[in-house]
Amino acid sequence: MQFFRPEDMPIREMVPGIRMQNIGHGEHLHLVRVFADPGAELPRHQHPHEQLGVVLLGSVLIGISDMEPRRVVAGESYRIPGGVTHSAKFHEAAVVIECFSPVREEYLT
């Protein structure tokens, strides 16, 4: 068994205006908390990890593959399959919890 305390987990800037904090991870799952400023943007990218997210505060405009971007608001969630190109735009401050599988090893260093 393992426990994680927020005060032991540094907050790191991913891109300007978007910060992430590891919440915890296991052998196959990884949870992170994302803090975004109004106007912040995560450019189109992809990774092999399946990703689930739930918006806790604010909203995010998620672009997945060639689909029309969709606004996801507090209380709603989304899933992005591994290997699929996606992006995120924040028109207001937001907090999002994301789960990845497998673990995002590059986030642990």
Write a structural description.
This protein has 109 residues and is an all-beta fold. The protein has a single domain (6-107), classed as Jelly Rolls, CATH 2.60.120.10. Helix content is 0%, strand content 54%. It has no helices and ten strands. It has strands spanning 11-15, 18-25, 30-36, 41-45, 50-57, 59-64, 70-73, 77-80, 86-89, 94-101. The strands form two sheets. Strands 1-2-3-10-5-8 form a six-stranded antiparallel beta sheet, with no helix packed on it. A hairpin with a 4-residue loop joins strand 2 (18-25) and strand 3. The mean pLDDT is 96.
Order of helices and strands: EEEEEEEEEE
Task: Kindly state the number of beta strands.
Answer: 10
Assign the CATH topology: Jelly Rolls
Structural class: mainly beta
Q: What form results from the Cα inertia axes?
A: globular
Mean pLDDT: 96
Number of helices: 0
Give a concise summary.
With 109 residues, the chain is mainly beta. It has strands at residues 11-15, 18-25, 30-36, 41-45, 50-57, 59-64, 70-73, 77-80, 86-89, 94-101.
Give the SSE map.
Elements lengths: L10 E5 L2 E8 L4 E7 L4 E5 L4 E8 L1 E6 L5 E4 L3 E4 L5 E4 L4 E8 L8
Antiparallel strand pairs: 1-2, 2-3, 3-10, 4-9, 5-8, 5-10, 6-7, 6-9
Salient structural properties:
single chain; four-stranded antiparallel β-sheet; 109 residues; 10 strands; globular; six-stranded antiparallel β-sheet; Jelly Rolls; mainly beta
